[in-house]
TrEMBL record:
This is Peptidase S1 domain-containing protein. One of its GO terms (biological process) is proteolysis. GO terms for molecular function: serine-type endopeptidase activity. Residues 13-93 form the Peptidase S1 domain. It holds the Pfam family Trypsin. The lineage of its organism: Eukaryota, Metazoa, Ecdysozoa, Nematoda, Chromadorea. It comes from the Eukaryota.
Length: 104
């Protein structure tokens, strides 16, 4: 399956649960990459947030996981391109559950 550039540039509105691996880290989006791990941008490390929201398309509703530890890339420097990546460990009672829907 190939995705054409015209498809990528064509805007569309996502319907409910189109992106189940996404979590909301205040103004930064993040991806759920493990049972208690998120991947986001290192420039978000100074955002004063104590938890992330996941499991819903709305940033104000969903399941909440408390942030345990942030691990920005050690070479990241604000304002300088590169190394803008950060792992975020969350503390959850249950594991972050992701259900993938394959359509190919």
């Amino acid at each position: 399956m190939f995705i054409t550039l015209s498809y990528i540039l064509k805007p569309f509105e996502a319907t409910g649960h189109d992106w189940p691996w996404m979590a909301h880290y205040m103004k930064c989006s993040s991806s759920i990459i493990g049972q208690k791990w998120l991947l986001t941008a290192a420039h978000c490390k100074h955002i004063p947030v104590a938890a992330i929201v996941y499991g819903n398309d709305d940033r104000t509703f969903g399941k909440v996981a408390e942030i345990k530890t942030k691990y920005p890339h050690p070479k990241h420097q604000n304002g300088i391109p590169g190394y803008d990546i950060m792992l975020v460990e969350v503390s959850v009672k249950n594991k972050l559950i992701i259900i993938y829907k394959c359509s190919f």
